[in-house]
């Protein structure tokens, strides 16, 4: 075990430590560490919850994630839908796979129908476990999606998200800037230090576990490097909506605009001081679950800040700020406006204007039948030496509705090619119609508690929540609400920063502030 750990990839970071103040003032590193920090912005929220679930809470998203885990697959369009939400794909996975240290362990596995007699597969593959072929069979693992050999972004001295051969300075609150003498003196002056010799220089090797620790701290504190080096406890504090900036999305465009399909019934106290739960329909659940697929950078782009306590937004601001001009321009959009992965579009991505990436396609130098048997190494079989008699008249044939170029009807003697294309895992039998969401359409109602625990609505679940609240039933009242777009936007933001999402948005402001001030006393 220790031998495996010693061989694990690491990135080198030099910390400048003020021992008297027990503080790391800043760090210096190459492109490898900075690339990893920028990759945080591409990570879906569900991935962050999965990575940090044992150590930290991300607003109410832990409850949303656990609700998906606990909910029966009968409520989802397909079994693969549950996997999509619990292990959401990263639209920038090809680039993140080039990082020296990778903290997202979600593999780029490829699945395909292994039945060589299947006439329905149309050269389709999926990147989601449990996807179904049109023939009804479950797709099986066939290999890892290969990297594009022409993409050399991480080769040699080039960086992934930043330009080559640069040294960067990273502040304690994760502001990133190219290293320079003027910046160093500016930081020393900021901390009131005239003589840099008072600082101790410590070189640390950061593996995936330690990088994950930095991600956790970036969501909860503004002293990330100090907390890591001195092993300070990472404490989760709720943020309150009235403390967060509102300048990066316009409420004016949404004012008085109601969503007809977003009617909910809330159960709260008569004095407006507590909200127990909401009775909601399928559209609200799809919106909530879709939040797990949203990249972290999209949240920061929309709302301006992840929370009042953390500093991960400093990484985002560095792109167009202190690190401007030092980013790889071809990958800039992937950080500033990250996409959701193909087929992950949802009500949440529409509201947050996170575009859906195009489905993957890949040409392989082999027939699809051999691909089903041998995976991505199948070209060795299909490209065997072809007798000259077959080289004279190459033909275009079709295999399972998939066009291939063949020199021979015998697979052993025909070099050919096929075009793999990604299929929507949400479609029950790999169909071609447009899917509508992760959760099945139906009349089923759900209960959503204040901390976004989702349960199928039943007398049992209702009785349980009311009993746990210890509030007399005659003090409770139902209130029907047709949510506006502003309220939905606020609910999505509250879900990632506070553990009282519904009451933070749906209780009257005056009572809300009174409740918050009382809780601080």
TrEMBL record:
Tell me which Pfam families the record gives.
Answer: DUF674 (PF05056)
What the entry lists under InterPro entries is as follows:
DUF674
Question: Per its UniProt record, what PANTHER family does this chain match?
Answer: OS01G0153900 PROTEIN, OS04G0594500 PROTEIN
Q: What is this protein called?
A: DUF674 family protein
Q: From what organism does this protein derive?
A: Zizania palustris (Northern wild rice)
């Amino acid at each position: 075990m220790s031998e495996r750990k010693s061989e694990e990839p690491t990135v080198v970071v030099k910390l400048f430590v003020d021992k008297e103040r027990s503080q790391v003032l800043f760090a210096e590193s190459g492109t490898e560490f900075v690339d990893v920090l920028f990759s945080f912005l591409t990570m879906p929220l569900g991935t962050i919850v999965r990575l940090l679930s044992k150590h930290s809470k991300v607003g109410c998203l832990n409850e949303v994630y656990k609700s998906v885990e606990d909910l029966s697959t009968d409520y989802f369009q397909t079994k693969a839908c549950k996997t999509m939400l619990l292990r959401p794909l990263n639209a920038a996975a090809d680039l993140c796979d080039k990082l020296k240290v990778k903290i997202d362990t979600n593999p780029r596995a490829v699945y395909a129908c292994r039945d060589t007699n299947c006439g329905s597969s149309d050269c389709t593959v999926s990147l989601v476990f449990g996807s179904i072929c049109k023939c009804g069979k479950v797709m099986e693992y066939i290999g890892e999606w290969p990297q594009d050999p022409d993409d050399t972004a991480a080769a040699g001295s080039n960086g992934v998200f930043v330009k080559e051969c640069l040294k960067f300075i990273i502040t304690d609150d994760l502001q990133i800037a190219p290293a320079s003498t003027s910046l160093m003196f500016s930081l020393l002056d900021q901390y009131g230090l005239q003589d840099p010799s008072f600082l101790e220089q410590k070189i640390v090797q950061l593996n995936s576990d330690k990088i994950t620790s930095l991600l956790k701290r970036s969501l909860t504190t503004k002293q990330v490097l100090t907390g890591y080096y001195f092993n300070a406890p990472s404490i989760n504090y709720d943020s309150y909506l009235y403390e967060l900036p509102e300048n990066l999305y316009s409420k004016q465009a949404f004012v008085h605009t109601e969503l007809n399909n977003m009617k909910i019934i809330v159960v709260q106290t008569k004095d407006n001081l507590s909200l127990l739960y909401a009775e909601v329909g399928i559209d609200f659940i799809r919106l909530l679950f879709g939040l797990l697929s949203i990249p972290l950078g999209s949240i920061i782009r929309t709302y301006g800040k992840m929370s009042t306590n953390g500093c991960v937004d400093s990484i985002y601001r560095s792109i167009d700020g202190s690190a401007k001009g030092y980013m790889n321009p071809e990958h800039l959009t992937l950080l500033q406006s990250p996409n959701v992965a193909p087929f992950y579009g949802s009500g949440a991505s529409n509201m947050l204007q996170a575009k859906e990436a195009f489905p993957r396609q890949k040409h392989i130098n082999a027939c699809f039948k051999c691909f089903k048997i041998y995976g991505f190494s199948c070209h060795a079989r299909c490209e065997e030496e072809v007798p000259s008699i077959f080289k004279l008249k190459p033909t275009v044939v079709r295999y399972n509705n998939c066009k291939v170029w063949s020199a021979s009807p015998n697979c052993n003697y025909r070099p050919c090619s096929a075009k793999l294309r990604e299929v929507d895992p949400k479609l029950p039998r790999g169909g071609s119609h447009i899917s509508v969401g992760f959760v099945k359409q139906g009349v089923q109602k759900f209960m959503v508690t204040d901390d976004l625990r989702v349960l199928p609505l039943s007398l049992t679940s209702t009785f349980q929540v009311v009993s746990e609240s210890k509030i007399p039933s005659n003090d409770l009242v139902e209130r029907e609400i047709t949510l506006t777009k502003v309220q939905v936007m606020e609910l999505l933001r509250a879900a990632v920063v506070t553990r009282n999402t519904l009451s933070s948005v749906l209780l009257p402001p005056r009572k809300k502030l009174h409740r918050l001030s009382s809780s601080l006393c």
